């Protein structure tokens, strides 16, 4: 989509759109363009099209909102919890979510994984026998070609202590054609059990092609989960979220996390108040089957990790309130 077309859709001067595009990356797949529609309030538009409100940056919004850096033994590896490592194997994504918490480190600001780094990760995982799970992250890890994924897997596939591979990706939903036979064969050939967490925020994203890709992943032996970001203007009401979750269950995806948005730059317009978030979750409990409840969580900025919102202390709630996370 050209800057002129984006400017028209947002009702902005073309020069303003150029400034937005210089600040924050944009990409949209054909699959998502097909469900975009013309309404600027469409949930796909709200998630992916640049918006002038992104110029409003609060002082507490950070370039590393979740504090990965202090827990990174290698440039691409985050080891915050003893038993699992997050491995950022791809710096790019097929779409760029406006609310992304890694927006300062991905796309044109990211660097591709080099062969020598794969060797470093292999050495690290070999030495750290407490690690039982490798989590592919990014960017979007499924942006890599299957041969590149095979190179990554060589870093751990023969290590007996690595029992699980988990992949966090938006690709099965936003670019389902990439879930092809070569990829499915590679994944099902790994000795590790396979867990795929798809990032999806609105049932509009669950196209017929996306459903087919998810079914193919299940057939290849993967267990499927979802993570959703609670986003004002996209899904911040119990009816929208319960429709999404029920649609996901129909194709075998079990809800995992409902994330409160992180303090990424220029994302204030997506935040709900704490009371509102809690009320939505309370209503979801009434509407949804017990097997369908995601955990509503928040990342404590500065490396505090993920915490269920209902387990926060009064001090933590107040601290996060002061930062403006809700
Ligand atoms: C989110 C995250 C994980 C995974 O956490 P789970 O609660 O197991 O989903 C692992 N490592 C890092 C650094 C993370 O940010
Ligand atoms: S797919 Fe994930 S990493 Fe990529 S822009 Fe969206 S939230 Fe960020």
From TrEMBL:
Pfam families: Radical_SAM. InterPro entries: Aldolase_TIM, Lys_aminomutase/Glu_NH3_mut, rSAM, rSAM_sf. PROSITE patterns: RADICAL_SAM. The modification N6-(pyridoxal phosphate)lysine is found at residue 306. Its EC number is 5.4.3.2. It comes from the Bacteria. Keywords: 4Fe-4S, Iron, Iron-sulfur, Isomerase, Metal-binding, Pyridoxal phosphate, S-adenosyl-L-methionine. Residues 79-294 form the Radical SAM core domain. GO terms for molecular function: 4 iron, 4 sulfur cluster binding; L-lysine 2,3-aminomutase activity; metal ion binding. It is an enzyme of class 5 (isomerase). [4Fe-4S] cluster binds at residues 93, 97, 100. Its cofactor is pyridoxal 5'-phosphate; [4Fe-4S] cluster. Belongs to the radical SAM superfamily. KamA family. This is L-lysine 2,3-aminomutase. It comes from Cardiobacterium valvarum. The lineage of its organism: Bacteria, Pseudomonadati, Pseudomonadota, Gammaproteobacteria, Cardiobacteriales. The gene is kamA.
């Amino acid at each position: 989509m050209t800057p002129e077309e984006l400017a028209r859709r947002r009702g902005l001067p073309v020069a303003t759109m150029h400034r937005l595009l210089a600040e924050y990356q944009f990409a949209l797949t054909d699959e998502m363009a097909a469900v975009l529609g013309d309404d600027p309030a469409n949930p796909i538009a709200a998630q992916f099209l640049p918006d002038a409100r992104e110029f409003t940056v609060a002082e507490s919004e950070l370039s590393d909102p979740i504090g990965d850096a202090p827990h990174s033994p290698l440039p691409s590896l985050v080891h915050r919890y003893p038993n699992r490592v997050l491995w950022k194997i791809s710096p790019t994504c097929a779409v760029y979510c406006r609310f992304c918490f890694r927006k300062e480190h991905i796309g044109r600001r990211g660097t591709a994984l080099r062969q020598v780094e794969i060797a470093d990760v292999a050495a690290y995982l070999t030495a750290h026998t407490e690690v039982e799970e490798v989590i592919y992250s990014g960017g979007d890890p499924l942006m890599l070609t299957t041969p590149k994924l095979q190179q990554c897997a060589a870093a751990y596939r023969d290590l007996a202590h690595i029992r699980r591979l988990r992949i966090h990706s938006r690709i099965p939903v936003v670019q389902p054609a990439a879930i092809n036979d070569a990829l499915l064969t590679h994944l099902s050939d790994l000795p590790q059990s396979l867990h795929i967490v798809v990032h999806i925020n609105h049932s509009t994203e669950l196209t017929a092609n996306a459903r087919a890709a998810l079914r193919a992943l299940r057939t290849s032996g993967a267990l499927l989960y979802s993570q959703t970001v609670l986003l004002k203007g996209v899904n911040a009401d119990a009816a929208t979220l319960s429709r999404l979750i029920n649609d996901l269950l129909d194709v075998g995806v079990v809800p995992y996390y409902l994330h409160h948005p992180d303090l990424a730059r220029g994302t204030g317009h997506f935040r709900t108040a704490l009371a509102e978030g809690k009320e939505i979750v309370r209503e979801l409990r009434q509407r949804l089957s017990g097997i369908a409840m995601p955990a509503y969580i928040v990342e404590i900025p500065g490396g505090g990790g993920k915490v269920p919102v209902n387990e926060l202390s009064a001090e933590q709630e107040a601290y996060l309130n002061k930062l403006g996370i809700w």
